[in-house]
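Ex. 9. Protein: DUF975 family protein.
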Amino acid sequence: MQQYSIDLIRLFKFSFHQYKKYSSFIIGIAVTYYVLAIIPQVYVMLYSPEEPSGQLQILSLALTVFQLFLSLGFFHIMLLLIDDNYVEVADLFNSFSPFPPYLMAYLLYMIAVVVGLFLFILPGIFIAIRFQFYPYYLLEDTHSAITALQKSYYQTENLTLELFLFGAVVIVLNMLGALLFGIGIILTYPLTTMATAVIYKHLSSGVTAIPSDPYQL
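Predicted structure tokens for DUF975 family protein:
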């Protein structure tokens, strides 16, 4: 049985190094993502009437699906950058093939998390931790939503506590980023997404010490 361990300091040190290396591109992609995917949703949420019309509900649903599509492209870009692979702005918009299973996996994931949180809270947290890597498996390994969820679950078997601590750090960093007038999130969200991608790379390759070469300085 493999026993994984995560050195959070080294993990975020490497992620920050990659962020600095590609900072201009990452900032541009992050701003594009927020302007196209996040701001329209926030606007609709803030200015929707208490009883929205059918057209407004359809618009809100369309914006949510579009946000999920761009989020998959964003994950893909961060996954490429940690390996110093070539990326371009178009990569934010070209995840057409893995998107249908990603949408299905996302729905299953969110339903399971919400039900778990509603019942006893801890099961919801457990589910969120163990199944969180499904987007990366869909981008690199499989076109099956169920298979991606299964792989995430089984390959995080001995890493639950470590991933809980990692998740706590991710939440704190992104909250701090959001508090800085929302501007800090341009740093913290790509940073934490790259760190998550690094963990996935180790899980998929079976390397137990996280981070290890070539993902450490």
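Check your answer against this statement. The first strand starts at residue 5 and ends at 6.
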